[in-house]
Amino acid sequence: MTEEDESSRRSQYELDRVLAISDGVFAFAVTLLVLDLVVPVLSSGASSADLLQALSKEWASFFSYLLSFFIAGVWWNSHNTNFRHIRNCDSALRWLNLLFLLWIAVLPFFTKIFDSYNTLQSAVVLYAVDQAAAGTFMSLMWWYATRNHRLVDKNLKKSTIRSRLLTTIVAPIFFIVSIGISFASPTIAIYSWFAMFPILFVTHRFDRESEKS
Questions:
Q1: Which stretches of 36-90 are DSSP H helices?
Q2: Helix, coil or strand: residue 86
Q3: Distance from the first to the final alpha carbon of the chain
Q4: What is residue 149's DSSP assignment?
Q5: What residue spans define the domains of the chain?
Q6: Other C-beta atoms within 10 Å of 67: how many?
Q7: Tens place of pLDDT for every residue, the chain, 213 residues?
């Protein structure tokens, strides 16, 4: 085996380990999210209507679960797309990835706070800070890996690099802006998060087009 082959094998091994721990943290986080959903306790003579009524009272918990699940999906998809272009790995990238995963791992904790106290500004701010921090480290990872094509294919187009960076910074920008909105209305701040999804869809389309062109 040549020195070049050995270096390539080592780089692939390091990338595989980064992706393995990343997928593990995401799986752990989304599993913990669903564990916070509570099954209603009914009397022995309860009817189906009683069950449905009890479940309807838990709508806020289901809302928090679905919100966090889909946001976690946004991060996982973005992480997966970024690492599809990354060819090498170094210590700085590993640490940036760990700092990103730190905020993913505590997502269930902040979701539980948000679920319990979603009318309080502090609960909304804490949730937004968690998501903004995750998105910031995601963006830093991409910026670091692509700067001067440090860890990506040398032939990766600059348009693809720019479009991917744009896609990764959309979510943290929305959450940072929502922190300011929360001082006026925590409810409006929560609603503002949903405007992020159609914009992410559009930027993702641009992303795919830049890869094809």
A1: 48-56, 59-85
A2: strand
A3: 37
A4: G
A5: 3-212
A6: 18
A7: 555 555 566 667 889 899 999 999 999 999 999 888 877 777 777 777 777 887 787 788 889 999 999 999 999 999 999 999 998 889 999 999 999 999 999 999 999 999 999 889 999 999 999 999 999 999 999 999 999 999 998 888 888 898 889 889 999 999 999 999 999 999 999 999 999 888 888 887 776 766 666
Distances from the Cα of 7 to the Cαs of 11, 42, 92, 96, in angstroms?
A: 6, 62, 18, 22
Of 138, 196, 148, give the one whose Cα is nearest residue 170.
196
Query: How many Cα atoms occupy the beta-carbon half-sphere of 127 within 13 Å?
Result: 29
What does the block give as tokens for 200? 């992410």
Residue 152 — φ and ψ, nearest 5°? Answer: -115, 170
Which residue(s) pair with 52 in the sheet?
A: none
CA atoms within 13 A on the CB side of 68: 34
